[in-house]
Design a protein that fits this description.
The chain is α+β, with helices and mostly antiparallel strands. The protein is built from four helices and six strands; from the N terminus they run αβααβββββα. It starts with a helix and ends in a 13-residue tail after the last helix.
């Protein structure tokens, strides 16, 4: 696994459908949010059954996307690298770097994004606090700066 791969908690490959492009051939902004969702679901489902309570109780409260280059249908599948940017008592933020299929993970991303996720008590329809176990999961999914990564990674 490369050093760039190790700096992310998960990297998903997400195909771009023909319908994801706008009239100019670029990936449409609304569809980018959907492609990010597909990547996030791949990550969360790959984590294992013990993560189910966190996954099932998280809802999006804020999305931010910054485009730095265009992405097109021919860039498929998009490489969506993700990590936990931060977490607080009732929410956490996922960071994304999105690149064309052939772009190295250490290259400048075409798109940087984040989603802030709040955790809720589904039955009570109210926010709930992250458990100690969930906080530990989120710590493990952080993105370590190069200087803090274990040697050999």
């Amino acid at each position: 696994m490369s050093d760039a791969q190790n700096s992310f908690a998960f990297v998903a490959q997400v195909p771009v459908r023909w319908s994801d492009a706008d009239a100019f051939g670029h990936v449409n902004h609304a569809r980018m949010v959907t492609l990010m969702e597909e990547a996030r679901i791949q990550w969360l489902l790959s984590a294992g059954e013990e993560y189910a309570p966190l996954i099932k109780s998280a809802m999006i409260v804020h999305v931010e996307i910054r485009y730095q280059a265009q992405l097109r249908h021919q860039d498929s599948p998009l490489s969506v690298a993700m990590w936990i940017v931060s977490h607080r008592s009732v929410d956490f933020t996922i960071g994304y770097e999105i690149r064309a299929a052939d772009a190295p993970l250490d290259s400048k991303p075409a798109c940087k994004a984040s989603t802030q996720m709040a955790v809720v008590d589904i039955e009570a329809h109210s926010l709930r606090r992250l458990t100690d176990t969930e906080n530990e999961y989120l710590r493990q999914w952080g993105r370590a700066p190069r200087s803090q990564r274990p040697s050999g990674s």
